[in-house]
Each structure stands twice: as C-alpha cells, then as structure tokens.
Amino acid sequence: MLQMGIIGYGYWGPNLVRNFNVAAGSQVSMVCDMNKQSLSKAKKAYPQVRFTSDVNELINDPEVNAVAIATPVFTHHELAKKALLAGKSVFVEKPFTHTVEEAEELIELAEKKKLKIMVDHTFLYTGAVRKIKQLIDDNVLGSIYYFDSVRVNLGLFQHDVNVVWDLAPHDIAIMDYLINDKPQAVVATGSGHFDRGLEDIAYLTFYYPNNIIAHINVNWLSPVKVRTTLIGGQKKMLVWNDLEPDEIIKVYDKGVKVTTTEGKYNLLVNYRSGDMWAPRIQATEALRLIAEEFVHYVEEGGKVVNDGAAGLKVVKMLVASSKSLKNKGEMIYL
Amino acid sequence: MLQMGIIGYGYWGPNLVRNFNVAAGSQVSMVCDMNKQSLSKAKKAYPQVRFTSDVNELINDPEVNAVAIATPVFTHHELAKKALLAGKSVFVEKPFTHTVEEAEELIELAEKKKLKIMVDHTFLYTGAVRKIKQLIDDNVLGSIYYFDSVRVNLGLFQHDVNVVWDLAPHDIAIMDYLINDKPQAVVATGSGHFDRGLEDIAYLTFYYPNNIIAHINVNWLSPVKVRTTLIGGQKKMLVWNDLEPDEIIKVYDKGVKVTTTEGKYNLLVNYRSGDMWAPRIQATEALRLIAEEFVHYVEEGGKVVNDGAAGLKVVKMLVASSKSLKNKGEMIYL
Lengths: 334, 334
Known about the structure:
2 copies of one chain form a homodimer. Chain A has 9 helices and 15 strands. By secondary structure, chain A is α/β, with parallel strands linked by helices. In chain A, the strands form 2 sheets. The first copy, chain A, has a 9-stranded mixed β-sheet. A 6-stranded parallel β-sheet of chain A has the order 3-2-1-4-5-6, with helices on both faces. In chain A, α5 runs antiparallel to α9. The model of chain A has no long low-confidence stretch (mean pLDDT 93). Chains A and B meet through β7, β8, β9, β10 and β11 of A and β7, β8, β9, β10 and β11 of B.
C-alpha cells in the first residue's frame, strides 16, 4: 500500500486526498497545508490522516512513500526536489514547473535516484480524451488537419500566473497527447486588462509539420463557460463538448475531398456530409485512474503518458507561448 | 424610383434582386449574368425585368440609375469603375475590392463625379448588430475589453480567395463598426490543407489601444456551424449567437472588479455575477434596410456606416491579415 503525503489542501488538494485515499494500492498518510483553517476542515473529513503545516515534516516522514504536490506552480520545483532528495517519487500538479530548467533538473534527479515523476495532466485519463486518442490512432479521423480548443469562463484570476499558465496546460497536454507529431513553433496573442502585467485573454497557435495547426483560446473574462474542441481530419471531423452531459463527443462523417483534374486550377471540391455518431464515453473519474496509474508506475515502472518528460514538453510550450504573448505574437520556435 | 441594374446572379445576386425590387424607392430594371442558365431562372421569377449577359449593355443603359455588383471580388474594381464613369452610383458586394489601391481609386472617382458608393456589409443593418452598437454607445457594457468572434462551418470553398477574404469581411466590418477605436496592428495565423496556396483556417488578432483585443476565428473545415461573438466589457458581458432563434443576444451582469489596495501586489478581485438579460431584437431583413438606405443615400446624400471609406478600412484589414497569414503571424501595422 503506497502511503501518500499530499502537500497543499487548497483548490485541487482535496481532490487528490479523496482519490489517493480510495484508489487501489494507495492511501493518504499525511497532508500538509500552511492554512490552519484548511487543515481543520480536512481533519474532520479524514480522522485517520495526520496533518502538518511543515512540508519538511511530511517529506521526511518515514511512513510517507510518495509525495503529491498541489501548490502554486512557482513552488513545485523546490518541493519536488526536496521530495526526490528524500527518496520519494512525486506526483505534481499541472503545470509541472515554472521554467524549463526546473523541469530538466527534476527529471535528471529522478533518473539518478531511480524515482518516478508523474504530472497531473488529468484530462489524458478522461474517457473523452482516451476515446479521441483511439479514434485518431485507429485512423477513423484520417490525417489531422487541425485542433481547435476553446476554454473560457469567468475565471478564478490567478495572482501569480497569466491565463496561459492557468488554463492552457490542459489544452497543450491534450493536444500533445492526441497529435502524433511535434509542434515547430508558436504564435501567441492576447491582452491583460487589470494593469498587473498578467494576460487574462490569450490565443495560441501551434504550427505543426504537414500544415497541421492547433489553436487554443483561453479567457478568464467570458460570461459563459465553454469547453469545446473541434478536431478536423481528412476522413472525419469531431466535436468534443466537455460540458455536454450525454453526447460529449460527436463524430461527423463530413469532410471535403478536393480532386485535381488537369492542373492546379481545375479543382473539384466535393462535400461529404453523412451521419453523426456519438460514441459512448467511459465515465470513471479520471483522477481515480491517474492515482492508480501513479501507484502502478511507482511500484512496477513501465511507461506513462504523463511522466516528467511529458510535463517538460508542456512547460516548454507554455514558456514559448508566454514569450510570444509578451512580444505580441512573435513566432517562437520550439 | 431608383432603377437598379444588378450585375451577377449567382449566390448573392438573387437576394439583391429580390430586395431592390421591393424596397421603398427602388426597383430592378436590368440583371446581368454571363451564365445563361442563371438568367433563364431569373427571367421566370421577374418577367418585368430585362436581362443581358453583357455588362456594358447594363452599365450604359440609360434607364439604369445605379448599379449593384455581386460578382467575384477580383472583378469589383473594373465593374464599379465602369459604372462610376457611366455616371452611376454603385452598391458593391463585400469585400469592396481586392486591393487597397483599387478601393482608393473608386472612392476618389466617386467623389469627383459626385456619386455614391455603398458596400454590402449586411450585418451592420441587422437588428442584432444595431442592438449591440446601441448597448455599447449607451455605455451599458462599459469600456470594451475584447471582441471574440467565431464564424466556422463546412464551407463553400472559394476558388479565388482564402477563408479570410470569404468569411472575415463580416467580422471585420462588425468589429470596426462596434469598437469606437482604430486597430493598430494585426497578427494572423492559419493553415491550408489542399495544396493550392489558399488558407481554409485562419485566426486573426487585432490589437487596439487600451488593451482592447479582437479575435476572429474563421474556418471552412468545421463539421458544425458556429456564429458566436463574445464581447466583454468592464460593466457587462455579451454573447451574440446568430444561430439562436430566440435569445440571439444575451447580456450578462457578470464581470470582474479589481481593486488595488496599497500597491500592485494586493489586488482584490471581486466577481460580480448577476442576471442575464436577452433584449428583443428587430427582425426586419437587413438587406431590405440596406437597399432602402442605399436609395436614400443616392438620392439625398448624408452619411452611411458602410460607405466606400468603411469598405476601404475593411479591405486594408483584409490585406494586412492575409499578409500576416502568409508570413505565419508576422505583426502587420495598420
């Protein structure tokens, strides 16, 4: 039984405690938060768990086998490094780290110590994303033309990071998981409206080889919540509406077939327009699956889609996006 | 009674004939199309109208007082110039022209000959856009933070222009009408998938003063049709869903109020979250209103929101967007 120590009991921490506590193969041994109020709430819900406001006490506790970190991003590196140095594998909230160097150092350290890093790219464990991945890998969609994601709402403004670092890690991790190629460059535009140097609206365009394009629209200032991704393929097109309770994914037998006859200027465009199909989506909670995968990864090894290297890739894209954003759309090569 | 000559009876021409024929103050005198089949269809519907396949015959017909042009964009300049030289005011399909120089020449010519140019930015005459304009001008939304428009569908691929020239003239004209300021620069990204040098997906970001940002997403390869614009203001936020039959505009009493206390780092973010209000929208057909406005403009003069100068502004933004698109997001100053 993997004994988890969870650092951070704010917004996301309670979900980690709940899931690691009941996941097959793990339970929560200790929880750390600097906020006493958060801790006393947690105590009531989990009488068997120990609590502390001192991270070192948790990290060095001999009963704790692995550490999950759900704190602000700028603290991830320090906490994860301490945990790895104490011989404990780490589960880190997204985004993995705040800089590329921090991520690289952690990956190297984990390798040296033969420990594991898993980044909480929760969406990669959802039934929806798994189904889309399967449709792409089975060539149901055909070669991909574009990935277009909108993730907007009236958001919880973060005080330390812009909207890209808050919302786009989801889309970038999903995009990176689904598209079987590496983006070459990013162009990011956006704006901030509260005179604090942090963008609350951003638009990211990732250029891939073969004219594949990915676009991510993140916005903290939308009156309506939208979580919709369009994926266009040569054979089929797909709409994933994460707020749709029933048909969360719709696959459309719609497409365009361009036939060239005698030279470039005689293009024949044919529109295929057929049925819509909504595959059944597995409803298991993603965080439960990810917790169990973490246990397996720590104890048995193997490969996971959200290891440190995957986390590093996302951080690289976030850093490049933020740089492009600051320079008003300057193309940043990846 | 203004006698209209309509050039082009393809996709949009029939709408012009229908509306100019019944609009107060105008009727259609002659229709020109090179396609005999289109003409014979039109003849059946309008037995009183004369038909020709020779544009010069229409333009020089002494009975024709003004000419409406609904042909591919690269022909607009030549046809409009001929009409103006023949002493006839022109109504030109969007986009006005294919180059900035063409638009400037036509505007100059019309001024010299004391004739009128009106560009068919139909949306500016819709009840929805008029209502939004009123809400902005009445300061109901407060100062504008952003304009975010999505116009995607499985599109009629144009053979001569990219998706920006096909779909974005609508959004650009609307944006230019609604935002009481001038965009300073554009960054456009996108991609084409059919090896003919024409983009079928594009994302345009317009930078305005005071951190106002406008983003336009146009795509011919979407399995679903979306026509949604979000407008965020300091006081209220608005969603315009043009495909929504009843509540086409929703105004949300949602917003973010940031209070600074003692220095930059003590930001207090307050979320206002109140009622949604859906104003009643005037249902009159926009093209009927625009036809009647054209008659009035030709006969009485005055000012219209879609004159040659407005058309030129849109062309400038289209040209800049296409240039940025070709250069993968290079910032183009306006």
